[in-house]
Amino acid sequence: MTRKKPPFKHPKRLELTDLSGWTHIIKGLKTFHLNNPSLPTNPLQPPEVPHSQTLTDLQASHARYRDQWLSSPCYQHIRKLFTEEVISSLYEEKGKEKGKIDRCIILGLGSLSNGRRSSWWQLVFLETILSLLPASNPSTSGVPTPDPLSDSTQQQKEISTTDHPPINVFIQDPIFNTLDHEFLASLGYTILTHPSAFVEITSSTFLFAPHLEIDIYAQALGGVEQPALCVGTDLTECLDRWCTARGGRGDDDDEDERRASRGNRVFEKYLGATMSRCLPEFERDDWTYFTNVIWRRPVDDDREIGEESGDPS
Length: 313
Prior knowledge:
By secondary structure, the chain is α/β, with parallel strands linked by helices. It has helices at 55-70, 73-90, 117-132, 151-159, 178-186, 214-221, 235-238, 253-272; strands at residues 13-17, 23-27, 103-107, 168-172, 190-191, 205-209, 229-233, 274-278, 291-296.
């Protein structure tokens, strides 16, 4: 049964798009445009590290969010979705290169040291998926080791994980500060600077990019190769939803139309080559709204586009 999605809201948050096209959400301020003269100088520079906050503090927060996530119904839904559907579909061998994910690209996670709750929930969600994907050495490269008694570990054995490469994790967001860098590096993640991450996206990539600004999302999916697995905005929500008012950029209507046309072609191509499931509601945060798990369609799957979308339960 398809779950009716409530309106997506970010109350009392400021959404700003920088000159590279990244959208950042800042709490506690009213929304205004980039060409507003009251905009603070350089508002999208990495935030300063909060006074006296340390790596140990972030590690404690990480453990707290992870424990709460693992006890949630949403976690159980996601684990069931991957162990019973996504992994078997994605890793069904049709050729030697089929189903081999060797890297994870994370875009737009947001600052963890600056207290953004959604960033923490997204991180522990991401770690769940990384722990479920087959990899030859899941305890390295920032990928948590799966529970040896879990169904997912048994399924990894059945898929023959030794035949799969390690999963290297890359992360990019211009809002990261020095403490964010230190913490993410401690997880084994490689921090990239914009736009390095985009050239790393291949057909063996897991792309984690919830709620990216639509131009950036199209850029991430619009390379020579599209990712095998993606957690991102529902593709049907992206089609024809282009913002033509780009304050301060000087774009004309013709350029807006060309960009929208290019983006729609990217989304339509990926939509036609993939299957998807919408994320279940997460009771502690609203980030899962309009967000899907999207994965490469088996080559012999002839279902109509859109037929497979729905709730994972």
